[in-house]
Amino acid sequence: MDEEERVAWAALNRIVEPGDEEAGALIVDEGPVDALARLCAARQRLRLEPPDGARELAHAALIGARFICPGAGEWPSQLDDLGPIRPTGLWVRGAASLRLAALHSVAVVGARACTEYGARVAAELSAALADRGRPVVSGGASGIDAAAHRGALVVGGLTVSVLACGVDQVYPRSNEQLLKRIAELGLVVSELPLGAHPNRPRFLQRNRLIAALTRGTVVVEAARRSGSLNTARWAAELNRHVMGVPGPVVSELSSGVHELIRTGAVLVTSAAEVVELVGGVGTDLAPAPQLPALPRDILGPVALRVIEALPLDRRGAPVEHLVRRLALPAPAVLARLHELCALGMVEREGAHWRLNPERIATP
User: Fold this and answer.
1) Ramachandran bin of 321, using left for φ above 0, alpha for ψ from -120 to 50, beta for the remaining angles
2) 287: which DSSP letter?
3) Would you say the CATH fold of 295-355 matches that of 94-278?
4) CB 30 within 8 A of CB 10
5) Where are the domains of the chain?
6) CA 274 to CA 240: how far, in whole Å?
7) What InterPro entries does the annotation carry (predicted)?
8) How many other β-carbons are positioned within 10 Å of the β-carbon of residue 244?
9) Yes or no: is domain 94-278 CATH 3.40.50.450?
10) pTM given for the model
11) Each residue of 236-285: pLDDT tens digit?
């Protein structure tokens, strides 16, 4: 890409609002240089100052940021799935490669006013994902977003914060130190020009980037009108995986996630289950859940039949009763009873055999 195109993209980034489909279609049809000329001519008629792309790039360099435009080597190609509403470029702080970070990344999002349960789940899930080499992407907001970023940082993993303001701005102020840490060890990203401040439409437009950058989105906690559900809808539209972590059924902050699961999102409870879904087909499989071992798990089929034939009352039954009930030879039944007695599962009292309630578990 030549410098003229790069400067044109930076200028377009200053005057094109996120998600402007009409301007995006013009850029696709005419290319960044000619599209910029058309848009600048329209601005001149309105007596608006033309953008200076070169100045934008120089300012970014002064504050340690860089500009990644479509077609550049570091550009994450999955953003092209957004078509005419893809960003005109991304401003980035941090040394890691955004393209490589996005290849196997997972979004972890949720409520700002989260519960202790939600924050803990988000942090532990993100830590486990980052530990497995899966960069964690979130929005840098309070609550679940902050917990997700911190979880990834704790294990030395890579995390990416996608902002709804310029990368030289801090929002919310309470996350100033966290965002500084992410810029040092991960990546802080925004499609908005330097100096841009957040507003509600920009948060919603930001969500499409979180969904597009990642292989799947996990919603940890969300009420029915949560903005994180907007990220999940974008993920579904872009054919990314949509996942939800269940919570208490009496919690309003879990109601949105539960509705998401009811309408098709995959229920996940661990990083292994997330990685199984977003990983390659037939690879990264989550281990099968291991049930607690019971004494009867080691028994053979005949011994199990003997256990089931013994009555539950304390008096028990004689061998003859079991032989008739099982239609098995007496020596076979007696041999199994002695085995079960050695394991402590049955007891003998005279001619009667009975279950030992302290050692045997019913199905």
Assistant:
1) alpha
2) P
3) no
4) no
5) 1-73, 94-278, 295-355
6) 12
7) DprA (IPR003488), DrpA_SLOG (IPR057666), WH-like_DNA-bd_sf (IPR036388), WH_DNA-bd_sf (IPR036390)
8) 28
9) yes
10) 0.80
11) 999 999 999 999 999 999 999 999 999 999 999 999 999 999 986 455 55
